[in-house]
Amino acid sequence: MKPTENVTRAQKAEGADLIMEQGFVTERDEPAMMDATWCAEFLPQVNDELRLRTLPNRAVMRQFHYYMGTGVILFDPTQLSEAQAKDTLQHALGYHK
């Protein structure tokens, strides 16, 4: 899958790197993720990059709603549960107490 007009090759590679290293990518890591349409293009690009690196794991995207607002996270479900992903995103965006 070639990079799209909106998702660059560098963003695609960086997203895959972050999934491999820390198990997730948040809006804090990639500010463009604040746009839901862009995220919908970003997820298949990251998964394609992981596939090209012959890795079996694939990222999933979740949007969580918090008291202070919403947030989006891409995460590897083999490294983080959905509850851990929600907590990780909450801390990354500063929505924790």
The quaternary state of the protein chains shown equals single chain
Mean pLDDT: 87
Shape: globular
Radius of gyration: 13 Å
User: Largest sheet, described in full?
Assistant: 3 strands, antiparallel
Ends distance: 41 Å
% residues in beta strands: 15-25%
The helix content, as a percent range, equals 40-55%
Low-confidence stretches are: none
The H-and-E topology, N to C, reads as HEHEEH
Structure overview:
By secondary structure, this protein is an alpha+beta fold. It has one domain. Helix content is 43%, strand content 18%. The protein is built from three helices and three strands. It has helices spanning 9-22, 36-52, 82-92, and strands at 24-26, 60-66, 69-75. The chain has a three-stranded antiparallel beta sheet, sandwiched between helices. Helix 1 crosses helix 2 (36-52). The protein starts with 8 loop residues before the first helix and ends in a 5-residue tail after the last helix.
Topology:
Elements: H1 9-22, E1 24-26, H2 36-52, E2 60-66, E3 69-75, H3 82-92
Helix pairs in contact: 1-2
Task: List key phrases describing it.
97 residues; 18% strand; globular
Short description:
The chain is α+β, with helices and mostly antiparallel strands and 97 residues long. 43% of the residues lie in helices and 18% in strands.
